[in-house]
Amino acid sequence: MLNFTTLPPLSLYIHYPWCARKCPYCDFNSHAVPGNTDKQHDLQRDEQYVAALISDLEQELPAIWGRSIHSIFIGGGTPSLIQPEAMQHLLSQIRARLQVSPLAEITMEANPGTVDQLKFAEFRQAGINRLSMGIQSFDDQLLQKIGRIHNGQQARQAIERAQLAGFENINLDLMYALPGQTLASALDDVQQAIAFQTTHLSHYQLTLEANTLFASQPPRLPDDDLSYEMQHQCQQLLADAGFHHYEISAYAKAGRECAHNLNYWQFGDYLGIGAGAHGKISDAARQTITRRWKLKHPQSYMDNSHGFKPVFASDSTNKQTSCIIGGEQQLSRHDIGFEFMLNASRLTGGFDSELFYQQTGLAITQIEKGLQKAVELELIEWHLHHIRPTERGLQYLNELQAIFL
User: Which residue in 108, 56, 7 sits closest to 326, CA to CA?
Assistant: First the structure.
């Protein structure tokens, strides 16, 4: 039995499943759009998908009555492919159904080559107030090797056009340890990103994920020593430029940490709507935490999202249920402890034990055995009520997280 005294903050995640081309390293739920469509056809597709999103949201509402949304994140895929008219309609319909905080951070992922200055301005007018731009690199040869559709000049132009359109809160995604990348090239990417004076930078190592083209046809990547040196020296560049390293791959100017992702990492609640979206909802009345997920294929998701009341069929053996559009599972006490640490261990500053109680409804003793083992292995520091990963713990994060399985 859990013991919630207050419910965690609540966010909304919206998944847009299409992209211009599937990247060979990408394991997200993304699908390439047909190459022979026009704007009218694209708008019709977007309108159909937005209608499915609204239907999906309406089915979620009973689980969160009376709660306010503190952030919205539109991810993908490539959400910047969506037509601005469809985005305007989506956000207005969300506000008609949810209590969205006036100060809510509303982020949209965008890729160079999919948006111009006018489109940026229309997204800004629709209510998007933060962009997360998939730059990955400014090096043309490296971009070709990882299958990106843009070049370095287009990346630079996209950032400038977003800023001219009125976006002040912008994250840039950069990858390092790319095929054939040198230390000088990795540092140059970070230096170019810093020069744009954006507010946030995500800097993460290319990894070969299962079920991707790179997994079946792996490119030659920098070795571990070079990859570590890239990470270490790029971190120093970012620190010197005033970026705070607050999550294992995230760096922000003061007060510009990504509110939506922080909510994930601090084990907050979130609704997930869209093809393949996941959500996590705490219930004070039932004293439960439940994960929900949606059908992954866009057409199946759209075909099954309309005109029905969701009827769930329970399976008492594992507390899973399913419906036409997806399914759900109630988390056990062990699952809750593990999932909290899976997220919170990514935070460089760690967390207070009180946060564990607030977000899970459980006492810190639920994970005490794992914490003590992690201390012995020098993967975390535990001082009174505060727990944080050590430098070794961040370097061997998978090892730290596995302790709580």
Answer: 56
- Whole-number pLDDT of residue 323: 54
Report which of 242, 145, 226, 140 is spatially closest to residue 184, judged by C-alpha positions.
226
Q: What is the pLDDT of residues 9-26, one digit of tens each?
A: 999 999 999 998 899 999
Specify the long-range contacts of residues 185-191, CB closer than 8 Å, at least 24 apart: 185/137, 185/139, 185/142, 186/230, 186/233, 186/234, 187/230, 187/233, 187/234, 187/237, 188/138, 188/139, 189/137, 189/138, 189/139, 190/234, 190/237, 190/238, 191/237
**Mean pLDDT calculated for residue range 91-120:** 94
- Each residue of 257-269: pLDDT tens digit? 999 999 999 999 9
Cα(97)–Cα(54) distance, rounded to whole angstroms? 9
Secondary structure element (H or E) that encloses residue 31, with its range: strand 31-32
Name residue, tokens 């594992």: 318
Superfamily of the domain at 10-264? Aldolase class I (3.20.20.70)
Label residue 238 by pLDDT band (50, 70, 90).
very high
Question: Could you tell me if 312 and 328 are in contact, meaning their C-beta atoms sit under 8 angstroms apart?
Answer: yes
Distance CA(269)–CA(7), nearest Å, equals: 8
Percent over 90 (pLDDT), the chain: 85
**Token pair recorded at residue 185:** 């090239």
Q: What are phi and psi of 385, to 5 degrees?
A: -105, 10
Domain boundary assignment for the chain: 10-264, 350-402
Question: What number of residues does the chain have?
Answer: 405
pLDDT digits (tens, 9 = 90+) for 62-87: 999 999 999 999 999 999 999 999 99
Record the pTM.
0.93
- The owner of tokens 């006492």 is 363
Largest CA distance in the chain: 61
Structure token pair of residue 370: 């794992």
What is the H or E stretch that residue 342 is in?
helix 333-344
Which two tokens mark 139? 């090096």
Token pair, residue 376, equals: 């012995």
